[in-house]
Design a protein that fits this description.
Elements lengths: L2 H4 L5 H17 L1 H7 L7 H19 L7 H21 L7 H11 L3 H13 L9 H23 L4 H21 L1 H6 L7 H6 L4 H6 L4 H25 L4 H15 L1 H7 L13 H18 L1
Length: 299
């Protein structure tokens, strides 16, 4: 039985929407998609729907090939996002991505506030280029990543408030790991996601970052950021055990692979301006294979 049928999704238009979300997940979310495959088939389409919504919005904001100005992108994002939010309120959508998302939100009673927060952070990407403090950055991180974890919990299965706290922390850890890896790529977009006050505390200037040469000061900053990722990951770990047993292997694998990005940064000796730290195929297999066995036992 295919995933959509297992999930009780039979309407042709709805199946097409979920299929498009899955395509976006498989194309752009390699690690996320791999982890999703560890879930029971009946849960997977709903995770694809969440990813499809987030990816489509992110593409509006970050498409480097787009000829649109930031102001035009902001308008496009606002127009599309407001319509999806309206569709969530109405309980139905004709949008090729929104249709699956609205269906998922209805089935699992996911708060619309999570999607409002996400769209707010995507808009911030078009208006804010740097963040003075970690607290300032967290406004962006909450909407761009933490709420993804909160959206996931009803699908994964848990009624524990502690599971929501853990999901928020793990989502934050994933995003911060991405920021560490993507410093150079983000500079291409005119953005700095490492808190300016923390950069200054290590003696890092804007000129150092623009030069894209690893210095002891930059390395020291990255080490501090990596420590924060690992601390959040450790704090979130007990919450994974509060999820439904058939969902735990998926999130355990995602945690190890996403947060493992910082291991790869260390492995390339912090040379983030010369190389892109990425999880090797071997490590993915090493993590996914035993996780798949645990997932199957849990079912």
């Amino acid at each position: 039985m295919d995933e959509l049928t297992a999930a009780g999704i039979t309407d042709p238009a709805m199946r097409a929407s979920y299929t498009e979300c899955k395509r976006l997940n498989s194309l752009h979310g390699k690690t996320y998609y791999l982890a999703t495959l560890l879930l029971p088939p009946a849960k997977r389409p709903f995770v694809h729907a969440l990813y499809g919504f987030a990816r489509y919005a992110d593409e509006i904001v970050d498409d480097l090939n787009s000829k649109l100005t930031d102001e035009e992108k902001a308008l496009e994002l606002k127009t599309w996002g407001n319509q999806v939010l309206k569709d969530i309120g109405n309980g139905t959508s004709s949008d090729h991505i929104g249709r699956a998302l609205v269906d998922t939100v209805k089935r699992f009673d996911i708060p619309i506030a999570h999607f409002e927060a996400f769209l707010h952070s995507m808009t911030m990407d078009l208006t804010v280029s740097e963040y003075e403090t970690f607290e300032d950055l967290m406004e962006y991180v909450y909407g761009s990543a933490s709420v993804i974890g909160l959206q996931m919990v009803p699908i994964l299965g848990s009624t524990s408030p502690e599971a929501l706290v853990a999901a928020e922390k793990l989502g934050t850890a994933f995003q911060l790991a991405n920021f560490i890896r993507d410093v150079s790529e983000d500079l291409d977009r005119g953005r700095i996601y490492l808190p300016i006050s923390e950069l200054k505390a290590h003696g890092v200037t804007h000129e150092m970052l623009d030069a894209r040469v690893l210095t002891p000061q930059i390395k020291s900053t990255l080490q501090e950021q990596i420590s924060r990722v690992r601390r959040l990951q450790a704090e979130a770990a007990p919450g994974i055990k509060l999820l439904s047993p058939e969902s735990q292997a998926c999130i355990e694998a995602a945690s190890e692979l996403y947060c493992g990005i910082v291991d790869e940064v260390e492995r390339i000796d912090f040379q983030i301006f010369e190389k892109r730290a990425k999880t090797s195929t071997w490590r993915r297999i090493k993590v996914a294979a035993p996780a798949l066995l645990r997932a199957r036992r849990a079912r």
